[in-house]
Amino acid sequence: LFNSRIDDTMAQQNATGTGNDPISIVSYSPHDALETSDFPASNAHLDATNVISIVCGNSRYHWALHGGYDDEYFPNLFWKTSTMGEFSEDDAENLQDYFPRKAFQAIGGPEFDSDHTIENLLHHITKRRIPFFHVYIISNGDKARETVPLLFSRVPCRIIQLQACDFVTGQYDGVGVDRCANLRAAQRYYGNPALVIDGGTAMTWTGTNSDGSFRGGGIAPGIGMKMRAMNESTGKLPYIDQDNVKAVFKKCFEEKKPLETYAKNTQDAMVVGVCREIALNLGSLVKEFQRYTKELFESNPPSARDLEDETPHNLRKNKPTRVVLTGGDGWLIEELLGEHHSYVIEEEQNSNGSTNTTHEDVIISQHKNLASHAIGILLKDTQLPKNAMTPVEQIRHDLLGLRVCKDIRRGTVCEVKRSEAKSIAADKFRIKYDDGLGETVGPEDLCEYLSDFAKNGEDPSFPDRDCAERKLHIENAKKAVETLENKVPQLKEKLLELQKKRASQGNQGPSSKKARAAAEPTVRREKKKKGPPEKSKKNNPFPDVSVELLEANPKKFLSERVAKHFDEDLYYGSVVSYDDNSKYWRVRYDDGDNEEYDVHDMDAYMKEYRLHPES
């Protein structure tokens, strides 16, 4: 478990405009990122590297980090966390609490060793071709569906709720998704039919038919639940946790001396009672499944190919009965089903001399994290290579992960909401901005935001905004604009209208046309502070401001105050950043609007402030 708590609060948002600035009021809920699975539309992007699965159990969340398409989405890192209690969007800063160091290293390399923060995570993943997380969740309750989107609300992501029908066929309504996922993995690794026993908070057993379809199963209290029930429902019985149960097992095995059926102390009496119940129940269950397998072979003998080792496991027919154990108590169940019950409890001999642990033609295997493996198998099986996609799907695929610019915000296209018309022109696109907000837009707005990103590039606050990976995002945005204009001809006309509108707006003030993030402000100008009327600027008494000084040391003037007239009003602001490439300073006015100044603007409006300081 990754239990360390990082108490650092979020730093104040920088000059990129991320944060609570009012320049773009966007209606967004973290739960907008949650989708119900619909394959192949729910497939991970072919270039995705940050694929995470969460199997939400009753007492633990089981996380896995998966490889990408080339690695067949195989899970290669596992960890567990406690479940989430009362959780709010403010708790999204705690995402790093749920990521162990190895997960940070796998996602971004050794630089995360000393900086497990949301900002560092965002800074790194926005360089990737697919700068968002694919998160696949298995959950049988509503709590995880509420909390997981809140947990990921500060990072660009796509959260997909998986369904039982994604994994098997023939299941009944309401069956646990985790049980069906276990069957899918057991089928792939061990063939059909197979029996899966999951030793979790609730112990379940579920089987497949010879064709891999859902046969059915049962549910019973797990070991921990039985122990807890005895403790909570009685006056004196103690609670025996898993560590104590494990210690009893170890002692019995080492001494080859099983617990007596008629125990002499309370702890042994409780352990032997629970273990005998489970061992006899599951032993009987294995024998029943063994008979079922035998009858299948006798009534429908498989072909020689069905039995060959070279045959894929999911197509192979099992002659020996295959029993697969998983879950936190899988190890304990394996001991109880083992020879002589692994000397944990006493054996019972049948009239023919056999014992309950005599399982001929039965292979029992333990497979940890079976449901996590099932998610990787599902993604591999449903993924289409790009050359197998329709032309429209190829475009949708290429739009995912593109970076966009709206006003001064930067964001990522995380989801394409496909239209019934099966046309890009009718699709919607979910964008997650780097400040945690987001919105769903149509192709017209998307094309505008892509075009602005192609012109303006990445967030000026990023120290590596000119690196090769970020320049590739600019090139991809340009290509996407061309593609959208070709597929939706009216977009080109609308972009031209927008450019004309911006050009006309630029004539209203000496530096508006130079604002690379030009867009209509969402805060009305009349809300700005009013200054005194403009005075003559001759005989300027402030020789510390000049074009020469600004050009010589442009960053020296960060945080300086400026004043600028719009019509009859004077508005105040602060210089918040400088871009070495464009040679522009970014100014944020006190009402939240932003503008970019060149050197002559800076010279004029810093002097204006000195002439008209705030009262």
Please give a handful of descriptors for the protein shown.
disordered N terminus; 615 residues; alpha/beta; six-stranded mixed β-sheet; elongated
Write the layout of secondary structure elements.
Elements: E1 34-36, E2 51-56, E3 60-66, E4 75-82, H1 101-108, H2 118-125, E5 133-139, H3 142-151, E6 157-161, H4 177-190, E7 192-199, E8 202-208, E9 214-221, H5 223-232, H6 242-255, H7 266-299, H8 304-307, E10 317-326, H9 330-337, E11 362-366, H10 370-382, H11 391-399, E12 403-406, E13 409-417, E14 428-433, E15 438-441, H12 443-456, H13 468-487, H14 490-506, H15 547-552, E16 561-566, E17 569-579, E18 584-589, E19 594-597, H16 599-611
Parallel strand pairs: 1-6, 2-5, 5-6, 7-10, 10-11
Antiparallel strand pairs: 2-3, 3-4, 7-8, 8-9, 12-13, 13-14, 14-15, 16-17, 17-18, 18-19
Helix pairs in contact: 4-10, 12-13, 12-14
Structure description:
The chain is α/β, with parallel strands linked by helices. 33% of the residues lie in helices and 20% in strands. It has helices spanning 101-108, 118-125, 142-151, 177-190, 223-232, 242-255, 266-299, 304-307, 330-337, 370-382, 391-399, 443-456, 468-487, 490-506, 547-552, 599-611, and strands spanning 34-36, 51-56, 60-66, 75-82, 133-139, 157-161, 192-199, 202-208, 214-221, 317-326, 362-366, 403-406, 409-417, 428-433, 438-441, 561-566, 569-579, 584-589, 594-597. The strands form four sheets. A six-stranded mixed beta sheet has the order 1-6-5-2-3-4. A five-stranded mixed beta sheet has the order 9-8-7-10-11. A four-stranded antiparallel beta sheet has the order 12-13-14-15. Helix 12 runs antiparallel to helix 13. It starts with 33 loop residues before the first strand and ends with a helix. Mean pLDDT is 82; it is low at 1-25 and 507-540.
